[in-house]
Amino acid sequence: MMMIAMREDATPAQIEEVVARLAAVGAEAHLHMQGSVATIAVEGDREAVAGLPIEVYPGVDRVVTLLRPYKLVSREFRARDTVIRMGHLHIGGGHFGLIAGPCSVETREQTLSAARFVKASGATGLRGGAFKPRTSPYAFQGLGEEALQILAEAREETGLPVVTELMDVRHLDLVLKYADVIQIGARNMQNFHLLAAVGQVDRPVLLKRGLCATLEELLMAAEYIVREGNSQVMVCERGIRTFETATRNTLDISAVPIIKHRSHLPVVVDPSHASGKVELIEPLSLAAIAAGADGLIIEAHPAPETALCDGAQSLSPVAFARTASRIAEMVAWMGKTLG
Amino acid sequence: MMMIAMREDATPAQIEEVVARLAAVGAEAHLHMQGSVATIAVEGDREAVAGLPIEVYPGVDRVVTLLRPYKLVSREFRARDTVIRMGHLHIGGGHFGLIAGPCSVETREQTLSAARFVKASGATGLRGGAFKPRTSPYAFQGLGEEALQILAEAREETGLPVVTELMDVRHLDLVLKYADVIQIGARNMQNFHLLAAVGQVDRPVLLKRGLCATLEELLMAAEYIVREGNSQVMVCERGIRTFETATRNTLDISAVPIIKHRSHLPVVVDPSHASGKVELIEPLSLAAIAAGADGLIIEAHPAPETALCDGAQSLSPVAFARTASRIAEMVAWMGKTLG
Amino acid sequence: MMMIAMREDATPAQIEEVVARLAAVGAEAHLHMQGSVATIAVEGDREAVAGLPIEVYPGVDRVVTLLRPYKLVSREFRARDTVIRMGHLHIGGGHFGLIAGPCSVETREQTLSAARFVKASGATGLRGGAFKPRTSPYAFQGLGEEALQILAEAREETGLPVVTELMDVRHLDLVLKYADVIQIGARNMQNFHLLAAVGQVDRPVLLKRGLCATLEELLMAAEYIVREGNSQVMVCERGIRTFETATRNTLDISAVPIIKHRSHLPVVVDPSHASGKVELIEPLSLAAIAAGADGLIIEAHPAPETALCDGAQSLSPVAFARTASRIAEMVAWMGKTLG
Amino acid sequence: MMMIAMREDATPAQIEEVVARLAAVGAEAHLHMQGSVATIAVEGDREAVAGLPIEVYPGVDRVVTLLRPYKLVSREFRARDTVIRMGHLHIGGGHFGLIAGPCSVETREQTLSAARFVKASGATGLRGGAFKPRTSPYAFQGLGEEALQILAEAREETGLPVVTELMDVRHLDLVLKYADVIQIGARNMQNFHLLAAVGQVDRPVLLKRGLCATLEELLMAAEYIVREGNSQVMVCERGIRTFETATRNTLDISAVPIIKHRSHLPVVVDPSHASGKVELIEPLSLAAIAAGADGLIIEAHPAPETALCDGAQSLSPVAFARTASRIAEMVAWMGKTLG
């Protein structure tokens, strides 16, 4: 459904031309006149109509599309919550997932240590980067396959499923060999070939919202994956870019209830990247749960002050234990189950 | 404290000129050379240094000010939470305020009805607009003094203190005659003469964050009020403007813990204006409490579908009762007292 | 004209309720069904329909308003360009205004000196602040009436009309006594009582866009003024707030052709506040003229490095002379007349 | 160079810990006390210091990095403008490039027709998409290799070098076989593996700014390419995402003079994607040239109303001819050479 508002000075011939163009693609156009202003309500095949550059016709003032552009991920398509299940990790439909671990895998000791303490404090999944997207080419870029092997060893010992980022479609097989959940990072949310690629495999995907992506675009990106056949997708709110400089990004807490309302996919919140500050992790985590989130992904490190990346936003073992305990209480208060 | 980075190609004479200018206003300049790059650390009287247009000097690359520009509202100035107390309304220091009521006072019946049902559901303060800032000159602008009289009558009956907006310094006496808390709206957050005026009276002020204001600017606006002598100030996060269109504004939930960390002033959250959608009021209210807010201000109306403004974001009596009940539970869970 | 999209799962009774509510305010509702989705096209009195909180009705998905909310300032209302004429200053309809001068009046000597050199380089109007809106209560706030007297003296000598900011409705008479053009600053763009007040006097108004205001809101603010009877309004693009930190604000250059397209009011650009950097003043000034601007307002100071405010973005006499010369050439190239 | 501001309540032990940590990585720390506030100026190896999570240490208030994080693309590294030369296309160092053509290659006839008319009107390069990044998986995704063959045929006939987008590192060889300039789209500006890949080939790259990228991040992305050995990089301003809805994006015109100031790379402006509206292409093109741009990339189509993508922002042959003529005049006025 599309609505077209013509300019007040649009001529009858201009109005006629628009109506004729719509008819040519098989759409039905209903014309309304109010005083000297014409509006046209358009019905017809979604894709045929969406492709028309109606704004370019003389006399057209504005065009508004009323239908949401995604289908498979919408709540209308599937009313029941999608649930992701894999080892300790259950996310969605009343199950709450607590994924934690270091920004990047630095050493075997650091990662095993992190896996142990987050497990001990109640985490249900382990995060850790093997390939790191870094703004600077001079920054640490990750250990690659060695990191994946270390993560697999940590899973072996703790039983925690491993969540790790895939940046490059050429690494898909490698990541599939080791990871339980494939993370698509914020910078790749609209890397459409990468989305299509993970849509063709049988492995859960954690899709992060781009720094500047609208919620509609996030759901469209999820649609890219689901449309290829992989329906095990969770979306992750991790902060958007605004003018505020007190935080690294601005956590869009409203994203949680809105996505829950519009889609059946689980919603995970990343308070670490959203805020960039350890002192905000706990309040933002509790807020996310209270807003209805299905999971959290939190950076934690055995010794944040030595971390090769994101040390300023990584919780220490003591801080993580305290925060995880509050998280568990709030999850219970909301009537959900951790794990 | 200010830091100056000179350009790599700055000449010794250019560096010397900056140092001399700083000396001329009584500041101390410490010069560091790293390879060919000079940086200058500046110490001295805050205001003398802040007024210097150092960026304009040849050879200067960047200037960074390290000290926060507010004093009286900072946590460093006063470690203990400021508490606002007035009738039912206690906000800050473990007391949680729940202010509710209609966007604007439309009729005596509507306002009394609203006051009764929000009181019955646990509200501790009554909001209602007498003077309305409206984007369109053709929209309802408020009933003025008649509205203030109606609000006073509602307070008489329910005991709820009245929170109402002051838009124009010429109405200050009128508002003081009837209101318990003076609200400064988002559009007037940097109306500095209005801030100074309410700083000179003995009445609590609820200061809303501008749509595009940083947290530092919000605290600076509070400083304008406190500096005139009125320390009974609460600040209100009500959403900022971003590219996201799914909500009216984007609630910056991180503002809550950040302000609590940097300032002793109580923080109130307005989920109604932040979201513009009734279905988001409850999740955002719970999130705000979980993040550490000291109060909420929520729009409620006996019959939202007939409201003259903000009907789409106003809770009905039934919806308000349900939400207020969840709010009360979460306030208790956080170890705070409602009222 | 309003369009309502119902949810796919909206019931016939819900659809009926919306249609009935519209009928109750005298609007005509045309219902379209496409598959299971209903949309409703609404015609009727603009204000009656705009006030309805249709989003609040059960089953409603989205509401879109198609008509622009302003009238008197629209190009449809008046096809011919509004022209402001006052002494040297002609703005609009092929006349280009070059307003220049210091951020604030600091001393008689500084202001007279500035007036002389900007006049000598081709300026057609003099700017200078008597009342300064400052983020910090500790910053210089302006000299008040003394500054207005100095500006009047500078006009006496140079013949340049004076543009100065009005911040407080209580100073209107004072400003009217001395100023030729009343400036409404960005922070007061939605100070609706102030807008109404300057709408009731017979003096040109320069209305600056708020840091976070949409172009529609800017034109609505202009509508507030014009509706009260004062049609001598120019609007000013001065940069909006974005995530970019390399400039003080982001100059929205597209605002120029868009406003020229939608409104008959002249458009002035302020490159000084938009960029905050002297080295950007000339390229942004030329860009503004090329984009169709009707005028510029530029900060210039006899000795920027001693300025009490905005020194980093104020042009020196030499720099202003060079830039003004390029401006004059570009104005001629665009087929407009300076003054 | 980094500056650290400690909190007012930081203890001597906390200050000592930070200084010791800096010493441990070989950096020199200069401590200043002003009253009770300590600041620390840090000198040392850029990468060693940048990796430290100083914010995480107790007592630290803020950390500010003063040096720019890119090197090879900076004006300091190379003072002389980089010039791209390839057939008709010369960009940089006084040469202005006018790249035009359709959003996507739809048919042989459409593309050849577009190439002919843009050439006839003065274009020096041909754009056209073979692989299209589309927000919706249901939209036209491009013709792939067939499109590249058509573009090569158009080059054969017109002599115009071909600019086309590379989305997927797996298509690099294919694109290299046909294209003269590799475009990296806005959504891939931080696809770091793709950047590294095009950094290893000998072919000019047109790097578009991400919708939400700062200028510093854009230059960092360029650094990724140049660092791998390919110095033939031009950067493209194509609008950023803001709250304004009157345009598709907000053209950040200040980006042009800022990048020219900080970097030796040529700057190209894309008014089509920045605005999304045909009526803005000419004013924004002229503004870009006036601001100092080295080139433009403009969408043009033989019949915009039938275009499969971006029809609303594509110029028709007549409109392109008129705009290209004004562009040529303005380029000459700025003292540059077209081609």
Description:
The structure is a homotetramer of 339-residue chains. Chain A has 339 residues and is of the alpha/beta class. The first copy, chain A, is built from 11 helices and 15 strands. In chain A, the strands form 3 sheets. Chain A has an 8-stranded parallel β-barrel with strand order 7-8-9-10-11-12-13-14, surrounded by 7 helices. At the A-D interface, α2, α6 and α7 of A face α2, α6 and α7 of D.
Number of strands of chain A: 15
User: How is the main sheet of chain A built?
Assistant: 8 strands, parallel, barrel
Write down the Rg of chain A: 23 Å
The SS-based structural class of chain A is alpha/beta
Shape of chain A: elongated
- CATH class of the largest domain in chain A equals Alpha Beta
Task: Give the count of helical stretches of chain A.
Answer: 11
Summarize model confidence as the mean pLDDT of chain A.
92
Please, what is the oligomeric state?
Answer: homotetramer
For the record, the CATH architecture of the largest domain in chain A stands as Alpha-Beta Barrel
Q: In percent, how helical is the residue content of chain A?
A: 25-40%
Percent range for β-strand residues of chain A = 15-25%
Largest interface here, residues on each chain? A-D, 53 and 53 residues
Q: Between the first and last Cα atoms of chain A, what is the distance in angstroms?
A: 42 Å
Number of domains as seen in the coordinates of chain A: 2
Tell me the series of helices and strands of chain A, N- to C-terminal. EHEEHEEEEHEHEHEHEHEHEHHEHE
Give the name of the CATH superfamily of the largest domain in chain A: Aldolase class I
Query: Largest sheet of chain A, order of strands side by side?
Result: 7-8-9-10-11-12-13-14
Uncertain stretches of 5 or more adjacent residues of chain A: none
